[in-house]
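seq:
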Amino acid sequence: MDLQAWTRTHVPRFGTLITVDNSAVVEIARLAGFDWLWIDAEHGQFHETGAAVACGLLGGGPPVFVRLPDHAPTTIKRYLDTGCDGIILPAVSTLEDVQKIARAALYAPRGERSVGIARAQGYGAAFELSLRQKNYSIIVQIETVQGVRNARDIVAHDAVDAVIIGPYDLSGSFGIPGQVDAPQVIEAIASVRGVCNAALKPCGIFAATTAKAREYAAEGFDLIAVGIDTTILLNALTDIRRSLR
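struct:
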């Protein structure tokens, strides 16, 4: 998908994180009507098989981006073969990180992605088209102090289609985990957003609550992931229990 064109209207696109590898959870998230969905293979239960099933269930629905557990070339090619609309790479902190990701994620001559036949290639039916036309997005997460310092070089790389800021890991990188509203964290977030805006590339962020999501929307973020499936369920059940006492 053309992620830059999709976000060009400057209307925030809201998504949510799915961590439970279960088809019912994936279908429920689709029914909720989010603009996009985030399948989490870093902190969630998903491996590439479950991610491929989720992508199939979401086919024809909202774009689905899969966060990978690491940047290893084998990891990148196996998750791209699931047929997701894009991959999210955690903790991208240097230009060298991006260069390695690009080599693994792009076919020759731009990169060195291994050629295979899986769901992303229509099990062979769309093989030639998949080699000629890049139909997936490469999204990097900037969530370290080093990443903030190197944001200009990271964002400028032509393989990077969008950035998602991880405010919680970023606060941890500052040595104050969980303090996402600390002045230095807020300043770092604004700095990365400014770099993305200057480069005309979409900038996203994770918001733990709807209130925080509204703040980020007002600040001009393009992609906003709101909440996590497990936490949303826990909070809903807790609210019901409390309301009955």
